[in-house]
Specification:
The chain is α/β, with parallel strands linked by helices. The chain has one domain (3-260): Rossmann fold. 39% of the residues lie in helices and 17% in strands. A seven-stranded parallel sheet has the order 3-2-1-4-5-8-6, with helices on both faces. The protein starts with a helix and ends in a 5-residue tail after the last strand.
Length: 265
């Protein structure tokens, strides 16, 4: 096996939620460039179909599936469509998320519920369903997209969407707890790791205590809007620097790495 083979995702199947545009589209195209077939999902089928055409032009197969992550039946249809088309799910990227802005003391309960329904409940349902498939297959990779806002409050003038922050904090702990629990439930074939990767001005190191044999769960913390991220040096970085971790997580090249992140500058 040569170095190029270590970074090859050929014959792998990736599911990316929120894959029709923005960060999800960028992740889906990156995985496709590495050779993976891709299932992309979101509520807006027209954007999905356009993105699917772009991905298929890279020489891989791409299946667009309309899915509202707040609706359990949609999630089950997504999983079923992926299995019917490809027969496997090797990589899951839980990227889809929503937010909604309003003054804190006037924030509508129905919008709070909507944010948690998509950002937390939907991630839980899809992860649970896909983990069952990965268990039977013998392994896989799950990548949950979170936010640096999960670790700190935000002033209303800058970010008038208070429920978004605790919803992402829930994703963080869900990621860690799933890995802790799954290690007790599954006995598969090889050492696995879970890591927190934080492209913030003050990145965090979390050693890979979580994970179970054969399946790894990763949590990616985003800072800023859409494609504007920060390196540890505080310099703006390009989307490709997010993709380096998204692409890195599923490949065999990092088999013996024990931690992802950097120390306080």
């Amino acid at each position: 096996m040569n170095v190029k083979d270590l970074f090859d995702l050929s014959k792998k199947v990736a599911v990316v939620t929120g894959g029709g545009r923005g960060i999800g589209k960028f992740i889906a195209k990156g995985l496709a460039e590495a050779g993976a077939d891709v299932v992309i999902a979101s509520r807006k089928l027209d954007k999905l179909q356009k993105t699917a055409e772009e991905i298929a032009a890279l020489g891989v197969r791409c299946l667009p599936v309309k899915c509202d992550m707040a609706i359990k039946d949609d999630i089950l249809i997504l999983v079923g469509a992926a299995m019917k088309e490809f027969g496997a799910i090797d990589i899951l990227v839980n990227n889809a998320g929503v937010t909604w802005g309003a003054p804190t003391l006037e924030f509508p309960l129905e919008q709070w519920d909507k944010i948690f329904s998509v950002n937390v409940r939907g991630v839980w349902i899809l992860t649970q369903e896909v983990a069952k498939i990965m268990k039977e297959k013998g392994g896989g990779k799950i990548i949950n997209i979170s936010s640096i806002m999960a670790f700190r409050g935000s002033i209303e003038e800058a970010h008038p969407a208070l429920p978004y922050n605790p919803s992402k904090a829930a994703v963080n702990l869900l990621t860690m707890n799933l890995a802790v629990v799954l290690v007790l439930l599954l006995v598969l074939s090889r050492l696995a790791r879970s890591a927190l990767c934080c492209p913030d001005a003050r990145p965090i190191v979390v050693f890979s205590r979580w994970g179970f044999v054969g399946l790894s769960i990763y949590l990616v913390l985003l800072y800023g809007v859409t494609y504007i991220f920060l390196r540890p040096q505080g310099l703006p970085s390009a989307p490709v620097q997010l993709l380096t971790f998204i692409f890195y997580a599923p490949v065999d090249a990092k088999l013996f790495l024990q931690a992802v992140g950097t120390a306080e500058p």
